[in-house]
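Human: I would love a firmer grasp of how sequence relates to backbone shape in proteins. Take your time, and here it is.
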Amino acid sequence: MTRAETRRTTARRAQLFDQLVELFLAEGFAHLTLDDVAARLHCSKSTLYALAENKDRLVYAVTVHFFRGATERVEAELARGEGAEARIRTYLEAVGRQLEPASARFMEDIARTPVAREVYERNTRMAADRVRMLISEGVESGDLRDVHAAFAADVVASVMVRIQQRQVAEATGLADAQAYRELAALLTRGLTA
C-alpha cells in the first residue's frame, strides 16, 4: 500500500469513527444492530468489521474515539486559561461542553454497557487526577486557599463518578454537562483565596 493509500484509509477510518460518534451521541447505541449502523453510515458491514470484530469492540472503539477527541479539546481550552481558579473552572466547564451533544440515551447506554462504562470510568479517573493537579498547582502558587489538594480532588472525583454513573442525573435531574458546570462553580467558589 502506498503512502497516499494509507493516508486515505486512515482518513476514511477517522471519518467513519466521527460519524459513529455523532450517531451514538444523538441516538445511543444499545438498540442499534450492525446492520442498522451500516445502513445509517451508508457503508457495508464488512467496513464496520474492518473497524472492529464485533459490536462490543465497535462500541468500545467509538467510545475511546469520543473521549480521546473530547480530552484533546478540553486540554486545548485549558491551555488558554490563566490563574488557578479560572483553569479549574475552564477545565470542568470544558468537560461539560464535551458532554453536551450526548443524548440521555447515549449516557444510559454507556452506563449499562460494560465496555463503554469502563472507558468512561477511566476517563473520569484521569479527569479527577487532572483536577487534583490543577488544585495542587493553585495552592502552591497561592492562587487558591490552602486546602488539602488530594482531599479536594477526592471529593471532585466522587462527584464525577456519581455523574458518570448517572446518580447525579437521577437525584437532581441535571444532565451530565450541566452537572459539570455546577461542580465547576461550587469548586472554584469554595477554593478561592
Residues 3-191 form a domain with the Tetracycline Repressor; domain 2 fold (CATH 1.10.357.10). The chain has a mean pLDDT of 89. The chain has one domain: 3-191. Residues 64 and 105 are 18 Å apart (CA to CA).
